[in-house]
Amino acid sequence: IGLLSAYIIKKLYLGRHSTDREVALMALMAYLSYVMAELFDLSGILTVFFCGIVMSHYTWHNVTESSRVTTKHGFATLSFIAEVFIFVYVGMDALDIEKWRFVSRSPGTSIGVSSVLLGLVLVGRAAFVFPLSFLINLSKQSDSEKINFKHQVTIWWAGLMRGAVSIALAYNKFAKSGHTQLPGNAVMITSTITVVLFSTLVFGMLTKPLVRFMLPSSRRPSTLISSEPSSPKSLTLPLLGSLQGSESDAVNNSTPRPPSLRMLLSTPTHTVHLYWRKFDNAFMRPVFGGRGFVPYVRGSPVEMSLS
């Protein structure tokens, strides 16, 4: 769906140079991916996530600059509203007497299930972070490039907080229209709510002190580029940059590298990323567009005539 939206805007010119039509098309195509996933009983959350990645890499660079600014701030606002709504919903549902009435009949079962779920979260997160960090360190030659134990603990701890996805999956599996009459399902829902509230409040409040203790801040000169855009013009920076050759060398010599994921995404290395960039530039971008493969258009014809 993400590639289809990029192709439509780049090749078929549906809504081209019209901010309203471009934004509407991007939003509707993203929603279409969710509808298709639910239609085939797939994960709508993961579908929208990967559709957003594809659209940010191709479709977003095919629209005008005004559409880029509009979609960036519009989707960011919708994301913030949805995040606030889900936590309000969790707080309101935590006081739902109907579900807790089933749990009150067997409080030991509820506490046991909540403890097991919380323990599985801790063990499952550790089972991913520490072995993968060990494998990554095997491929690093310099000690400065390796992920030390303090960084591993910080990564493990920062991912322990559960939230909207856990609540949504619990309701999708154990409830119908937000209600259930089965004691077992009620225990699972309330246990999930308990884990979400506990991890958000306890782990969330302890994250900042833990980071300060494990990773004490060091004074550094403020000459590094911020990874966050500070103006609409900076929105033209790609999610996956396309600078190559002498152009890339000139940029690297004149400006310091940003200390973030953007440096990895914009500077290919001799890994899978390098081969993906070659394949992307040779086959994908010429068809679906992207930064450097579509003509730069500042705004709609009406906007340009007014300016």
What this model shows, in words?
- By secondary structure, this protein is an all-alpha fold.
- The chain is built from 13 helices and no strands.
- Helix 7 runs antiparallel to helix 9.
- The longest helix has 32 residues, at 107-138.
- The protein is globular, with a radius of gyration of 24 Å.
- Residues 220-261 and 300-307 have low confidence and may be disordered.
Any descriptors?
69% helix; 307 residues; disordered C terminus; mainly alpha
Topology record:
Blueprint: H1 2-12, H2 19-39, H3 44-62, H4 65-93, H5 97-104, H6 107-138, H7 149-158, H8 164-174, H9 183-214, H10 245-254, H11 261-266, H12 272-288, H13 301-306
Helix pairs in contact: 1-2, 1-3, 2-3, 2-4, 5-9, 6-7, 6-9, 7-9, 8-9
Low-pLDDT ranges: 220-261, 300-307
Count of alpha/pi helices: 13
Could you give the order of the helices and strands? HHHHHHHHHHHHH
Proportion of residues in extended strands: under 5%
End-to-end Cα distance, whole Å, is: 35 Å
Q: Fraction of residues in helices?
A: 55-70%
How many beta-strand runs?
0
| Overall pLDDT level | 77
Structural class of the helices, strands and pairings?
A: mainly alpha
Largest sheet: none
Tell me the radius of gyration: 24 Å
Spatial shape: globular
